[in-house]
Amino acid sequence: SSLLGNKVISHLLLTEPAPLAANQDDSTNDSSLRILLILCDLLNRELLLLIGWAKQIPFSGLSLVDQMSLLQSGWMEALLVGVAWRSQGAGGDELVFAGNLCLDEAQCRATGLADLYEALRHLIAKYRAMKLSPEEVVTLKAMALANSADPVDCPDSVQRFQDGLHEALQDYESSRREQHRAGRLLMTLPLLRQTADRAVQAFLRLHRHRHVPIHKLLLEMLDA
Q1: pTM over 0.90
Q2: pLDDT 10s digits, 178-202
Q3: Which residues pair with residue 95 across a beta bridge?
Q4: 8 A C-beta contact, residue 102 and residue 94
Q5: What domains lie within the chain, and their CATH numbers?
Q6: What's the N-to-C CA distance of the chain in angstroms?
């Protein structure tokens, strides 16, 4: 069964999209607004990429209703796994949203994302201490989606999707002789969820109170 489990993970590794670069924005001279516009544009494109990716993993076997509800509640978690992974490799205390978009604490404070900075640093520290592997990252990302909402349409197939991911992770860890590691990774999911909630609130606040323009799809997902 370890072969089967690692088949799941190798498929996730194969379908993992190449990282996006941030697009520059020259529409404003206000540097903190510019950062926000670049960040929202990046998130919007990452969201489109994530929806495309979900169609290539076992997730696509779920009913459309369940796919939608899991994506609506888990997309930010899945994206933040990527941010945490990229930041884990970076030396300093920057958040690496893209290779060409790294924000430090001062920049996050200036853009109104101080709260999110704190939460993400906490998550990154936890993952950094564990020294995540690429296999674990892609599995966590899929798990973040799989566990994000109560299935409304077909609970059995969602359960099978979750069980398949759990089994794959267990098999992967036992092949590395890491007995408790799968459990430890699963125990980081609540912190990931909390961090994602804070991220969603932070972007909605910027949109409502600072009138930062946000793409329609991204706004719908933030508001879901």
Answers
A1: yes
A2: 889 999 999 999 999 999 999 999 9
A3: 103
A4: yes
A5: 2-16+30-223 (1.10.565.10)
A6: 38
